[in-house]
């Protein structure tokens, strides 16, 4: 086993432990946690068994395993960007709704005479 594989495995195990800790502390929801657990477990498997990349390359019809990883990583990044965009749009709509409700409430509720 090469030294880069050892460092990669250690990093992936560290990242995996952080994901589990985030789930346990409820800083990450279970769906996202399962996704990241899958990703980091897959990283460990690929680092322990690098020949799986050659099989993946043959299945996808690309030349090398590293090329397959790059292509799949690009697809995954686009998916993550889409998810972040969708969440951001949802949050913007929610903020707009709350601001409108506060503005209407402030407009029609009488003010205290003690306030400015």
UniProtKB/TrEMBL annotation:
Transmembrane residue ranges: 6-21, 33-53, 68-85
InterPro entries in UniProt: DUF2304
UniProt keyword annotations, A-Z: Membrane, Transmembrane, Transmembrane helix
Protein's UniProt name: DUF2304 domain-containing protein
Species this chain originates from: Methanotorris igneus (strain DSM 5666 / JCM 11834 / Kol 5)
């Amino acid at each position: 086993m090469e030294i880069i594989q050892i460092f990669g495995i250690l990093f992936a195990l560290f990242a995996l432990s952080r994901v589990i800790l985030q789930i346990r502390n409820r800083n990450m929801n279970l769906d996202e946690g399962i996704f990241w657990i899958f990703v980091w477990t897959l990283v460990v498997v690929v680092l322990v068994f690098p020949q799986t990349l050659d099989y993946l390359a043959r299945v996808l019809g690309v030349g090398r395993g590293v090329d397959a990883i790059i292509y799949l990583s690009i697809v995954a990044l686009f998916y993550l960007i889409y998810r972040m965009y969708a969440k951001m749009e949802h949050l913007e709509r929610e903020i707009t709704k709350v601001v409108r409700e506060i503005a209407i409430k402030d407009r029609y509720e009488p003010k205290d005479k003690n306030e400015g």
